[in-house]
Amino acid sequence: MKSFWAGVRAESPLLIGVFPFGLIYGALAIGAGISPAAAQMMSSIVFAGSAQFIAAQLIHDAAPGLVIVLTIAVVNLRHMLYSASIAPYIEHLPARWKTLLAYLLTDEAYAATIIHYEEEGFTPTGHWFFFGAGLALWTTWQVSSALGIFLGAALPSSWPLDFAIPITFIAMVMPVLKDKPIVAAAVSAGTVALLAYSLPFKLGLILAALVGIFTGTYLENRE
Known about the structure:
Order of helices and strands: HHHHHHHHHHH
Shape: globular
Number of helices: 11
Oligomer: single chain
């Protein structure tokens, strides 16, 4: 349980930005015409903030179901990178643990967990750290999205809640910028993401990820 609570503590600073993120999603989902029950179920089943935002926007625009599914799939391809990165640390676990941790694998949970694994290496209780970080994020997301759903339009438009989203991701990235290849990967990916922002189906994010991976890998191999 010590590792579990260590994971909760490591995740806690990121939850400050996740909470308003969930409020925004809840209000957006209701505004898009999604029922409260369906909106909350999306938080529980899909459990992916960016995917839920995109789904709500596409539902509001009456996009075909296939377009919604394919767009979300493209946006969430980054989870394949997270999985490949963290797999060596949990490959020894039974299937039930892998299934649970795969469900809890999000941007924020990954950020806290991979830093822990890189600093501590393989430990017998490392998966409890992962579980603690993921569960803390899951609980916060369920509560905040529920509040956003039921408060809906009552949230003052003057509240700068959307500002919490980029702040959260900046807080995730900064601790891992420790050497030149990683910094170069982040800068190149960020630059491409901005230049390719107008590409359809969020393909700019995938292109940015590929450029970042190539840049970081190339420089790391040279060193």
